[in-house]
Amino acid sequence: xxxxxxxxxxxxxxxxxxxxxxxVNNMEIVQAIIEAAEETNSPVILQASQxxxxxxxxxxxxxxxxxxxxxxxxxxALHLDHGTDFDQVMLCIRHGFTSxxxxxxxxALDENIAYTNKVIEVAHAVGVSVEAELGKIGGTEDxxxxxxxxxxxxxxxxxxxFVKETNIDFLAIAVGTAHGVYKGEPKLDFDxxxxxxxxxGVPLVLHGSSGVxxxxxxKAISLGxxxxxxxxxxxxxFAEGVKHFIKANPDNIDPRKIxxxxxxxxxxxxxxxxxxxxxxxxx
Length: 283
Ligand code: G3H
Ligand code: 13P
Ligand code: ZN
Hints:
Bound molecules: glyceraldehyde-3-phosphate, 1,3-dihydroxyacetonephosphate, zinc ion
Largest sheet: 8 strands, parallel, barrel
Shape: globular
């Protein structure tokens, strides 16, 4: 069934687990996520980035997500990932998304608060959940110094002010993860997660979670992370599935045959994540 992000994350917060939010760009990815969620009885979030929406088209991606969610035996939210502007958020709400992220992390604090509030006023009026971001979640750079960490990681006092002055449903924080493939092992600032959790009260979101070791993910969840974003690990599984099949079957030209192993590998990866997140049997 199609539900809001808020209701999924409040249950996750209450019961000490995290909901996986997986990026979708086409039908096979949507199917892999839903099948994994149903087979593990997990709640799940399908999320589309602006790039994903541009690639598939808003009508296609929204229709795929809504049909998949409505027919699913588990609760599913349809979420906009890293929405950078008001119009993009409105487009997604108009097409039935039940949750949106407004990423104002490029702005100074006051401006981020004002921009986020503008989105919240409309989104909440129609029952759509809102995720905001504070701090700067990196690209793939690692080995950053402590000074640099303090400059880019989410400041707990700022997080407190942000949550007090907005009515956001969940907050994405920068605590040492980065989008894409890691060059070294990511080092999470666990103390910072705990301090922010104790101050703000809203469920916390971890971006750039592909490639983060299992133990670090479990610890982050125990300290207050309730939504975990995964894209790169699915891209890797998809690409490996396609490459492996084509290498073994160079003459096969059937897209269904080529994409089935990709879907199977993504599904296995998603199920593995759901076990780590503790969302199994929480639907
Ligand atoms: O956070 C970024 C996600 O991996 C989406 O990436 O903008 O290339 O779709 P994308
Ligand atoms: P990864 O691609 O590093 O898993 O990050 C996904 C993400 O944060 C989407 O918002
Ligand atoms: Zn992200």
